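Why does residue order matter? Because the sequence determines the fold. Keep that principle in mind as you read this record.
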Amino acid sequence: MVKKIKSRYGDERTITLLENGSYKVEGRSMYSRFGDGLFDFEGGPCFIAGDRLLDVDDPVIIESIEVIHDTPEGVAGCILHVKKDKKYVKLPKKSNWQNRKS
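Structure:
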């Protein structure tokens, strides 16, 4: 699975599902901030360990973040190690009360 999203400045970020179930996120960014459980692209998105990964269809929680240091100049990236979100409940498109006639 490959998904493309845009930063608030219009820069493209590519999210790729890896064979081990982690997600690789890369894109053009003049700078990025990262530290203990955090990775923030210039213009977003910002990923934080413990948060739900909203940009993919699977309900997953970010467990840890690995910075990719060997990217070309002007490109930033990270690998998001995730686990399934057991609390996630997919809601039906319409519930019964919405179908009732008054």
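Strands lie at 2-6, 12-17, 23-28, 32-35, 38-41, 46-48, 60-67, 75-84.
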